[in-house]
Design a protein that fits this description.
Layout: E1 8-12, H1 29-43, E2 47-53, E3 62-66, E4 69-74, H2 91-105, E5 111-115, H3 117-129, E6 133-137, H4 142-145, H5 156-169, E7 172-175, H6 178-188, E8 194-196, H7 211-217, E9 225-230, H8 239-251, E10 257-262, H9 271-284, E11 291-295, H10 302-308, E12 311-314, H11 323-330, E13 335-338, H12 343-346, E14 353-356, H13 361-372, H14 375-392, H15 395-414
Parallel strand pairs: 1-2, 1-5, 2-4, 5-6, 6-7, 7-8, 9-10, 9-12, 10-11, 12-13, 13-14
Antiparallel strand pairs: 3-4
The structure holds uridine-5'-diphosphate.
Uridine-5'-diphosphate binds near residues 30, 262 and 296.
Length: about 425
């Protein structure tokens, strides 16, 4: 329902459907980000339309999340799964579908917030023919990703060019951490406006609750030492490092260790290859009896897994922000994570978790061991971790910052390009 006294804005998230199930190959942090930002912006008084590509023929074209927030699935290529690296050729159709939706609905969004480089391309195209204001969040950066890839996809040069253009031509780019801002400046461009506004988490859902209750619900014994991974099966997530660290801990003859791996699709999706590879390593190392592949778990049940765990491990080779870290800490679970990207920003070493070098199997094993066997320290960390997230990363606080940014960008467009004078408001949870 479109209300006349609400400003309509569009969020574009080409491949990451805000209405999709999270945790499979193509559904992860970006879906969660766009969905929560969209819904919270609507609760702050905007009318929010979130656009994504229609992937399945039987998916609804429009999903209404709340009276003023909906997902709209646009035709762009065949209605079937297409990997991100092959989506670019369908983006011109995505743009025409977007324009024809606007026309038929009599809408004209003055501001579009694009997510990921493919959406950035769409935003830049729309900017050529209309006076829209553009805000962009990267979620992943080609310039960083390609550094660690052996096989660079064909689309790489286009992606790098679009990632530079959006920084130089958007009204503002949102970096989700100071580390991302630094990377953008050193690897992408020294031009363009950047503001730091982090990702958030639902602190009503992910919060401190009883560990004993969570263990009973999940049928886990009180004596078990539970090491948890949550996320997609993607090589850059470094699950292999965790499995090998787990094997090192088992070699020390430690009792009652259990590794739970949450995520992945159950259907025949492409994450199957990485999952099979990890399952083979688990098998080869003789860890099958101590490892549980829990599959994809929704956000309704996920808090139980975090709460039941003794430690959550995030062994990514690269992580622009890392929602899993703040979800785990919000539930009071200390994390052992790679010292990369946004994880350096969200985790306070020795207070809410530990940071170790990515791929350093021994360092991960040592970090996990320290947390598993120091009760007193962990009890302190549990409270600190949860308080840290509540203070810095609630969706409400984060979205208020985005909302203020949009208002500034729109006001500036009316006042004919006044100098940039925006100051990110501080997060106040009670706001
Ligand atoms: N996730 C989930 N169920 C799963 C696995 C993952 O809901 O089975 C969610 C997880 O809770 C988090 C998101 O997927 O909200 C992953 O975001 P993150 O930023 O950590 O990684 P990304 O997928 O963006 O690389």
């Amino acid at each position: 329902m479109l209300s006349l006294n609400r400003q309509a804005i569009a969020l574009i998230s080409d491949h990451a459907d805000p209405a999709a199930d999270i945790g499979c190959e193509e559904a992860g942090g970006q879906n969660v980000y766009v969905r929560h930002v969209g819904e919270t912006l609507a609760s702050l008084g905007w009318h929010v339309d979130m656009f994504t590509r229609k992937v399945h023929a039987d998916d609804a074209v429009i999903v209404q999340h709340s009276p003023h927030c909906r997902t709209i699935r646009l035709k762009a290529g065949a209605e079937t799964y297409i990997p991100r690296d092959r989506l670019f050729e369908h983006m011109p159709e995505f743009v025409s579908s977007f324009q024809s939706f606007q026309r038929t609905q009599g809408l004209n969004y003055p501001l579009i917030h694009t997510n990921y480089w493919l959406s950035a391309w769409a935003g830049l195209e729309l900017q050529k023919t209309s006076g829209i204001q553009l805000v962009h969040t990267y979620h992943s950066l080609g310039a960083v990703k390609y550094q660690s890839l052996v096989e660079i996809p064909q689309v790489a040069s286009t992606r790098l060019r679009v990632e530079r253009e959006i920084l130089e031509r958007a009204n503002c780019v949102v970096a989700t951490s100071p580390q991302e801002q630094e990377t953008l400046r050193s690897l992408v461009s020294t031009r363009g406006q950047i503001e730091i506004i982090p990702c958030g988490t639902d602190t009503d859902n992910f919060r401190l609750t009883s560990k004993a209750h969570a263990r009973t619900q999940l049928k886990l014994g009180t004596h078990e030492k539970v090491i948890l991974y949550v996320g997609r099966f993607d090589e850059r997530k470094g699950i292999e490092t965790l499995v090998r660290a787990f094997a090192l801990l088992k070699e020390k003859d430690l009792q009652n260790l259990k590794l739970i791996i949450v995520g992945g699709s159950s259907a025949n999706m492409p994450d199957g290859d990485e999952r099979k590879r990890i399952e083979n390593i688990v098998n080869d190392l003789g860890l099958t009896d101590y490892t549980l592949f829990a599959g994809r778990i929704g956000h309704d049940i996920l808090p139980l897994y975090y709460t039941a765990a003794d430690v959550c491990v995030i062994p990514s080779y690269y992580e622009p922000f890392g929602l899993v870290a703040i979800e785990a800490m919000a539930c009071g679970v200390p994390v052992v994570a790679s010292n990369v990207g946004g994880l350096k920003f969200t985790i306070i070493p020795e207070e809410t978790g530990l940071l170790v070098e990515p791929k350093d199997i021994e360092a991960f094993a040592n970090g996990i061991h320290r947390i598993l066997f120091d009760d007193l320290w962990v009890r302190k960390m549990r409270k600190q971790a949860s308080a840290n997230v509540n203070q810095r990363f609630s969706w409400t606080g984060v979205t208020i910052q985005l909302s203020e940014l949009y208002r500034h960008v729109l006001a500036r467009s009316i006042m004919h390009e006044q100098p940039w004078s925006y100051k990110v408001p501080s997060i106040n949870k009670s706001a």
